[in-house]
Design brief:
The complex is a heterodimer of chains A (127) and B (419). With 127 residues, chain A is an alpha+beta fold. Chain A has a single domain, classed as Heat Shock Protein 90, CATH 3.30.565. Chain A is built from 4 helices and 4 strands; from the N terminus they run H-E-E-H-H-H-E-E. Chain A has a 4-stranded antiparallel sheet, covered by helices on one side. The termini of chain A are far apart. Chain B folds into 2 domains: 203 residues, no CATH class; 190 residues, no CATH class. Chain B is an all-alpha fold and 419 residues long. Chain B has 19 helices and no strands. The mean pLDDT of chain B is 95. Chain B is globular. Classes of the chains: A alpha+beta (127), B mainly alpha (419). At the A-B interface, helix 3 of A face helix 6, helix 8 and helix 19 of B.
Chain lengths: 127, 419
């Protein structure tokens, strides 16, 4: 189970990192906070994005209950290097996501977990 | 369930009911019943046109029944009826005219359900692989009716073989996706071909030869000639009946998408815009067959219905024309008849490579279509026709080749530029 979770996290990091690196940032930070029934992944970069661009990212990462896509096409997340990164491959597989302007760039937060998992416990700006 | 999704269910149910009624009306209930039995017990490898084996009416009813089963599975699994599932139901319907039967699809679906259980997933997470995975139905009927074994052991072997194939499909399908990175729409065709090659090799190694087959109806009725324009018109009408300007804009937006897997047009744009796209794709592919003088039989209608279905999940006129043109170019250069079975099916099913044109431009699309034609004429023999999506197999190989070259070129070109 641990190996499966590790692989899954790696694919998520890879897909979102691909997206961030496509914009050629000077800095990128990835932070992971993990507990037994959930995890919180935060990615920061130093790229200023317009509200429209942030809305596009939010839409791509918007949680959608699409098990038929997550179970099959979701396996492509983190693998495909040709073409643009596809954040919607992640959107079906996560519990929640937020995208905000951090002041010095963009912050993307992803929460994953089971049904008991409460993303409210896992926010960097609350710690 | 949202209102638009309910409406979509209504449209699908209406179409399937229409096909059923048309089938019974054209052949009569007794004729359809006898034809259906004939179809279930007949080998189903490429190319067995069910309109000749059981009659056009029986073929339509067979296709409508198994498509209805697919729709029921979607409903029961509580997954969304949207681009991917709509394309699956239309594909099942199309191939129900020349290869899929109740007998040969059920073991595979059962096998995928077992595979989901093993992986700790719900059936809904694997439903697309179950629905599309019925491409290997002919392997089940080959084991049952073409190996020469006594009836009971043959039936048990065929069911066991189908379940085994179903269990293997999901892990292989997910790896195959990574090969072409979503640039071939019929990924299960590539998967089925890959598994089919092993299955066929086992059969040959055990001394069971499976000769090639070509049962092709060259005299379809007016029902089959005009079925597609009627269905396409219904789709366009239901798409544009209210707020036509808005949904035409959605149709235009669909044509700006590359179509790379997984492009759910119904979810990213709108259901109605997608219905319009599906209808237009149907009319254009029907027009192509008419233009080249093709036969509107089971396999050809199967190709058109598959194209229509994927009009909700990756294909549109703008990314489709280059690959079809590539197939036409290859046929003209190599002196092939555009209306012959191989070339006409290659043209219709080459649309699996539409995302290549959508992403990389029309020149790459033409090259892809060209290579697809030469590949598809070889790949059928590798799996002895047990993989119905043979064009998907050839398309997946073609896409993998093109994608690997483009990826290599871009990465080395970038490295050189940085130096």
């Amino acid at each position: 189970m641990k190996k499966k979770r590790t692989e899954f996290i790696l694919h998520l990091i890879s897909e979102v990192a691909h997206f961030i690196l496509d914009a050629d940032p000077s800095r990128m930070v990835i932070s992971l906070h993990q507990e037994e029934d959930g995890l919180h992944l935060s990615l920061f970069d130093d790229k200023q994005r317009s509200e429209e661009e942030l809305a596009t990212i939010r839409k791509a990462l918007e949680h959608q209950d699409r098990p038929e896509l997550a179970g099959y096409y979701g396996s492509m997340a983190g693998y495909d290097m040709l073409g643009a990164a596809r954040l919607d491959l992640i959107g079906w597989q996560i519990k929640a996501a937020t995208v905000r302007d951090s002041g010095s760039g963009t912050q993307i937060d992803l929460w994953l977990g089971g049904d008991r998992f409460d993303p409210e416990k896992f926010s960097l700006y609350k710690t | 369930m949202e209102r638009e999704e309910k409406r979509l269910y209504g449209i699908m149910e209406m179409l399937l009911a229409g096909f059923f009624i048309a089938g019974v009306a054209s052949q009569g209930p007794a004729g359809v019943w006898a034809g259906l039995i004939e179809i279930q017990l007949h080998p189903a490898r490429l190319l067995n046109d069910f309109t000749l084996i059981g009659g056009e009416g029986a073929a339509l009813v067979n296709a409508a029944f198994i498509a209805a089963l697919g729709l029921l599975l979607v409903r029961v699994s509580k997954v969304r009826l949207s681009g991917p599932t709509v394309s699956a139901v239309f594909t099942i319907f199309g191939f129900g005219l020349f290869g899929k039967t109740f007998f040969n699809v059920l073991p595979i679906v059962a096998g995928v359900a077992i595979s989901a259980r093993i992986a700790g997933k719900s059936f809904g997470e694997y439903i697309l692989m179950a629905l599309f995975g019925t491409t290997l139905g002919p392997l089940i009927t080959a084991l049952a009716f073409e190996t020469g074994f006594p009836m009971v052991p043959a039936l048990l072997l065929s069911v066991a073989g189908g379940v085994a194939v179903g269990i293997l499909l999901p892990p292989v399908a997910m790896v195959m996706l990574r090969m072409h990175q979503g640039f071939s729409l019929y990924n299960i065709g590539l998967t089925g071909g890959f598994i089919g090659v092993f299955g066929a090799s086992l059969l040959v190694a055990s001394g069971k030869s499976l000769p090639s087959v070509l049962i092709w109806n060259t005299g379809p009725s007016l029902l089959f000639v005009y079925l597609i324009p009627v269905v396409s018109t219904v789709l366009i009408f239901t798409g544009l009946i209210s707020k036509p300007v808005r949904y035409l804009k959605d149709f235009a937006a669909i044509m700006r998408m590359s179509g790379r897997l997984p492009s759910d047009f119904m979810s990213t744009q709108s259901i109605r815009g997608s219905l319009c796209n599906m209808g237009v794709v149907g009319l254009l592919t029907w027009g192509y067959v008419l233009l080249v003088g093709g036969d509107f039989n089971g396999p050809v209608l199967g190709g058109i219905f598959t194209a229509i279905g994927f009009g909700a999940f990756g294909k549109h006129p703008k990314n489709g024309w280059p690959v079809m043109l590539g197939v036409v170019a290859a046929c003209l250069i190599f002196g092939k008849d555009l209306a012959a079975p191989g070339p006409i099916l290659a043209a219709l099913f080459s649309l699996t490579l539409a995302p290549l044109a959508g992403e990389f431009g029309w020149i790459i699309g033409i090259i892809a279509g060209f290579l697809h034609l030469v590949m598809v004429e070889r790949t059928g023999a590798w799996h002895l026709g047990v993989n119905l999506y043979n064009n998907g197999f050839a398309g997946g190989l073609t896409a993998t080749l093109i994608v690997s070259v483009i990826e290599w070129y871009r990465s080395t070109h970038e490295t050189a530029a940085r130096r």
